[in-house]
Amino acid sequence: MEASIAAWVNGLLAALAVPRLGLTAVFVVSVVSATLLPLGSEFAVIGLVKLDESLFWPAVLVATVGNTIGGAISWWMGYGAERAYERLAERPPSEARALGWLQRFGAKACLLSWLPVVGDPLCAVAGWLRLPFWPCVVYMAIGKLARYVTMTAALMWWFPGRWPAIG
C-alpha cells in the first residue's frame, strides 16, 4: 500500500514538474496565483530559470501574461460580485476611505496588484468599483512585469549557479 502511494505521489510530482512542462507550468501557476487563491508563482519562475537561464525573459513574460490574466479574472469576479450584491445603506468609515482612495486613483491603483496579500483582492475591488477594464489590465501588467523581473533577478543573484534537475 505504501509503495503504491509513494509511486502515485512520485508520478504526480513528475507530471507537474516545471522542467518537463516548463513555460506551461509557469503560465498555469501564474494564472492561479493571481486569483484569490493563496499561491505564489515566483518559485516556479525561478525554478525554470535556474534550470535554463536562457529562459529568463520567456519565463518572466509568460508569468506576467498569466498573472495579468489571473488579475483580469479577479476584476471580473469583483464586477460580478458587485452586481449580485445588494448595496449597503451605509459603509463603515474605513471601507469608505479605502474605496474613496481606489476611486481617486482609478485604474492606476492596479499598479499595486503585484503586492502580496492585498494585490489580488485589489483587482477584484477594481472590478467591484467598475473601474475601466482595459486600463486596469494594462496597469496590472506593468506592475506584474516589474515584480517578475525584480524577483527573478534577485533570486538568481541570491541563489547563484544551476540547480540540479529533478527526476
From TrEMBL:
Regions that span the bilayer: 12-36, 56-77, 137-159
Keywords: Membrane, Transmembrane, Transmembrane helix
Annotated Pfam families: VTT_dom
Keyword Transmembrane: yes
VTT domain location: 56-150
InterPro entries: DedA_domain (IPR051311), VTT_dom (IPR032816)
Protein name: VTT domain-containing protein
Organism of provenance: Ideonella lacteola
